[in-house]
Amino acid sequence: MGRVARPRGGVPLNHAARQGILAQYKHSGEYAERLVADLTPDEMIAQPVAGVVMNHPAWVLSHLSAYAPVMTKMLGGVEPADPLTHRYGRESSPQADLGEYPPRDALVAHFLTVRHQLAEAFTKADEDHLGAPVLIERWKSRWPSIWHACVTLMTTHEAVHLGQLSAWRRAGGRPSV
User: Fold this and answer.
1) How far, in Å, CA of 66 to CA of 86, rounded?
2) Would residue 36 count as lying in a domain?
3) Distance separating alpha carbons of residues 104 and 64, to the nearest angstrom
4) Closest by CA position to 112, among listed 14, 37, 7, 9
5) Rounded to a whole number, what is the distance in angstroms from the first to the last CA of the chain?
6) Cβ contacts of 79 within 8 Å, gap of 6 or more
7) Which of 12, 49, 52, 157 has minimal Cβ neighbours within 10 Å of its Cβ?
């Protein structure tokens, strides 16, 4: 068993924990691909429930794709821009204009690319760096270390949004995947 470091939050880091996160992250990426594989371009921005704005596939993939590079930069020791006001960040909302998003295939390809880059950076990061404080000031009260931010953004954050896509599919009469 490898060396165990304790970041500021006191959570031990080890190979098994990192491998578990990476396995879940891989599974989530595959699930995301299945959730949008059968959609037409127009369906990527569809709102299946009249009067209810749901996070549609184009926004969800764009949103998740905005956060992976932030973490990749942080894992590389580079201070990233806060994604709060990013075009697809936390303060954004789904748009009904297909022109606001890349075409489906390009969007999926970009999503997979930035996720792969994050997974590689997470795999290569040493434990001391993972235990370092996050580099976005607003995040410091939420996550005491880069490790904590990675765990949340690579697992829970993605799972929440992919769950929204699953509900979006069902609301539109599409089969589950």
Assistant:
1) 7
2) no
3) 14
4) 37
5) 37
6) 73, 135, 136
7) 52
- Amino acid 111 reads F
Determine the residue type at 153. L
Total domains present in the chain: 1
Q: pLDDT digit string (tens) for 71-107?
A: 999 999 999 999 999 999 999 999 999 999 999 999 9
Tell how far CA 137 is from the center of its chain: 19
DSSP state of 51: T
Confidence band of 127 (pLDDT split at 50, 70, 90) = confident
**Token match 């009904």: residue?**
96
Question: What six digits make up the tokens of 136?
Answer: 């976005």
Does residue 33 lie within any of the structural domains? no
72's CB contacts (< 8 A; 6+ apart) are 114, 117, 118, 121
Place of tokens 């390809």: 109
Q: What is the DSSP string of 106-139?
A: HHHHHHHHHHHHHHHHHHH--HHHHTSPPSSGGG
Cβ 151 vs Cβ 105: under 8 Å: no
Token look-up 């969800």 returns: 60
